Amino acid sequence: MATATATTLATSESIKAYVTAMRPKFVNITGGTLALSITKASLGTETYTYNIADFTSSDPEFATNKIVGLVIRGYATSSQSSNVVYAELPNGPFTAIVRASADGTGDFDQSQTTTTIPINSGQTTIDMKLEVNDAQTTAAKFDLIGFIIQPGL
Predict the structure, then answer these.
(1) Cβ burial, residue 111 (10 Å; 0-12/13-18/19+)
(2) Pairing, β 94-101 against β 67-78
(3) How far apart are CA 149 and CA 66, in angstroms?
(4) Structural contact between residues 12 and 3, judged by C-beta atoms closer than 8 angstroms
(5) What is the 3-state secondary structure (H, E, C) of the chain?
(6) Predicted TM-score of the model (pTM)
């Protein structure tokens, strides 16, 4: 809308360019503070902290200050208890992304989901947590698969 002045209106081209710049866009992640895919098979809880400034993408429009969401795929399996993948929301607390629960009577539960966790302006880190109460080969796992960015930021 750079063509608009106090006495003229914006052109349709400048309005289209503005709208396009403000439309969210998915971009792939190529790197981060830690591995982009982490699996926990043994009992216990582990927290993984990612510095937002360390994230990378090959997309030419990518910059860490443009990130408004982190796209995460979570997996969990269990045959006798519960295993959970958590992500921390921008102002805390942790929220469960995926949970697998079984009662140990021959049950086997396997779950997978993909979700987007919001990233606030000025946020510097995001924490992921894997909780394993039933040891399995892939008891709890997450993959950081991409970002939602705001190209016009």
Answers:
(1) middle
(2) unpaired
(3) 5
(4) no
(5) CCCCCCCCCCCHHHHHHHHHHHCCEEEECCECCCCCEEEECCCEEEEEEEEHHHCECCCCCCCHHHEEEEEEEEEEEECCCEEEEEEECECECEEEEEEEECCCCCCCEEEEEEEEEECCCCCCEEEEEEEECCCCCCCEEEEEEEEEECCCC
(6) 0.85
User: Is the distance from CB of 71 to CB of 26 less than 8 angstroms?
Assistant: yes
Query: Peptide bond preceding 24: is omega within 30 degrees of 0, i.e. cis?
Result: no
* CA distance linking residue 45 with residue 51, whole number of Å: 20
Exposure string (b/e) for 55-65, b if CB count within 10 Å is 16 or more?
bebebeebebe
Whole-angstrom distance, CA of residue 71 vs CA of residue 93: 18
Give, for all 153 residues of the chain, the pLDDT tens digit.
Answer: 555 566 778 888 888 877 777 789 999 999 999 999 999 999 999 999 999 999 999 999 999 999 999 999 999 999 989 999 999 999 889 999 999 998 877 788 999 999 999 999 999 999 999 999 999 888 999 999 999 999 887
In sequence order, the β-bridge partners of residue 78 are: 109
Tokens of 133: 């109460």
